[in-house]
């Protein structure tokens, strides 16, 4: 049971980040994402790296080349849509 709880805890934040990016319809930087989740930027960066590794997000250029934004990939958009539907169905 403890292993399942650990796995679910790991999945919660990435799922919430995908939902946040999907519903915001904007490309956001890591600072804004960290503020939204009241988390340290380093923790968010690690989670984003995992999401990038499984092709759910990618880094995009911002207004200038120095600014890096986080964008959903096509796969990330599909999963974001499904997560929003599940969240609405469960009313959570």
* Poorly predicted parts: 3-10
Rg (CA only) = 13 Å
The count of strands amounts to 2
What's the rounded overall pLDDT mean? 85
Task: Label the CATH architecture.
Answer: Orthogonal Bundle
User: CATH-wise, what's the superfamily?
Assistant: Winged helix-like DNA-binding domain superfamily/Winged helix DNA-binding domain
Given the structure, what is the number of helices? 4
CATH level-3 fold name = Arc Repressor Mutant, subunit A
- Element pattern in H and E: HHHEEH
Backbone structural class? mainly alpha
Which CATH class applies here?
Answer: Mainly Alpha
Please summarize the sheet with the most strands.
2 strands, antiparallel
- List the strand order in the largest sheet: 1-2
- Secondary structure: helix percent: 55-70%
Distance between the termini: 23 Å
Number of domains: 1
Form type? globular
User: What percentage of amino acids are in beta strands?
Assistant: 5-15%
In short:
This protein has 92 residues and is mostly helical. The protein has four helices and two strands.
Features:
4 helices; mainly alpha; disordered N terminus; 92 residues; 2 strands; two-stranded antiparallel sheet; Arc Repressor Mutant, subunit A
What is the secondary structure topology, with strand pairs?
Elements: H1 2-24, H2 30-36, H3 41-53, E1 57-61, E2 68-72, H4 74-90
Antiparallel strand pairs: 1-2
Structure description:
With 92 residues, the chain is mainly alpha-helical. It has a single domain, classed as Arc Repressor Mutant, subunit A (Orthogonal Bundle). It is 65% helix and 11% strand. The protein is built from four helices and two strands. It has helices at 2-24, 30-36, 41-53, 74-90, and strands at 57-61, 68-72. The protein has a two-stranded antiparallel sheet. A hairpin with a 6-residue loop joins strand 1 (57-61) and strand 2. The longest helix is centred in the N-terminal third of the chain and has 23 residues, at 2-24. The radius of gyration is 13 Å and the shape is globular. The model is unreliable at 3-10 (pLDDT under 50).
């Amino acid at each position: 049971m403890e292993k399942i709880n650990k796995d679910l805890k790991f999945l919660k934040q990435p799922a919430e980040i995908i939902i946040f990016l999907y519903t915001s319809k904007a490309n956001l930087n890591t600072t804004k994402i960290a503020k939204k989740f009241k988390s340290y930027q380093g923790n968010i960066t690690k989670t984003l790296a995992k999401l990038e590794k499984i092709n759910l997000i990618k880094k995009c250029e911002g207004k200038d080349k120095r600014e890096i934004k986080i964008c959903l990939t096509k796969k990330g958009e599909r999963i974001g849509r499904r997560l929003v539907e599940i969240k609405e169905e469960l009313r959570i």
